Amino acid sequence: MRGKELRRSLSVLPIGTVMKLTSLTARQIRYYESQKLIFPQRSDGNRRLYSLADVDRLLEIKDYLDDGLNMAGIREVYDQKQRESEQRKNQDHQLTDDDVRKILHDEFLQAGGLKTPSAQQPQAPLQKPL
Questions:
Q1: SS3 of 6, please?
Q2: What is the CATH number of domain 3-68?
Q3: Which of the pair, 117 or 60, is modelled with greater confidence?
Q4: Domain limits of the chain?
Q5: Which terminal Cβ of the chain has fewer Cβ within 10 Å, N or C?
Q6: 85, 22, 83, 84: which is closest to 51 by C-alpha?
Q7: What is the pLDDT of residues 11-50, one digit of tens each?
Q8: What is residue 48's three-state secondary structure?
Q9: Residue ranges of the alpha helices (H) in 2-70?
Q10: Cross-strand partners of 13
Q11: Any idea of the CA torsion for 18, 67, 80, 54, to the nearest 10 degrees?
Q12: What is the CA radius of gyration of the chain?
């Protein structure tokens, strides 16, 4: 996680501050938590602590509600975003050994000036002599 993302994910804001930043009531904020739309951390004294990312999400939820989306619709939006994020992560990790070898081979050829990126074309596999 990069530094900026790390800072935004630190849960340090009490609910009173979040209420002022979002113009939401404590009841609304707790309701969104019960709907599994936000996930505040808990302090040692079991008090909710929110991050800047939580505040962003609460403001986003307010916008969705203002646009006429209901809770089920908002949940579906976030579920879809989660699925897309997981798919991107899976796609990034689905390179086979052959894929990696091909990528390295092409990069070595390009680095050596033997092949330009525009000239990349699939080549037939080399045949072993019989």
A1: helix
A2: 1.10.1660.10
A3: 60
A4: 3-68, 70-115
A5: C
A6: 22
A7: 899 999 999 999 999 999 999 999 999 999 999 999 999 9
A8: strand
A9: 3-9, 15-22, 26-34, 52-66
A10: 50
A11: -10
A12: 24
Tokens of 42: 């808990």
- Report, in this order, helix, strand and coil percent for the chain, each rounded to 5: 60, 5, 35
| The pLDDT of residue 66 | 96
3-state secondary structure of 122: coil
- Structure token pair of residue 11: 């849960």
CA distances from 38 to 4, 25, 119 (A): 20, 15, 49
Q: Could you tell me which of 42, 38, 50, 52 has the C-alpha nearest to residue 5? A: 52
Question: Could you tell me how far CA 129 lies from the centroid of its own chain?
Answer: 50
Query: Quick check: helix, strand or coil at residue 41?
Result: strand
As a dihedral over the C-alpha atoms of residue 69, residue 75, residue 80, residue 82, rounded to 10 degrees, the angle is 140
Whole-model pTM: value is: 0.64
40: which 2 tokens? 């505040």
Give the pair of three-digit tokens for residue 67.
Answer: 């646009």
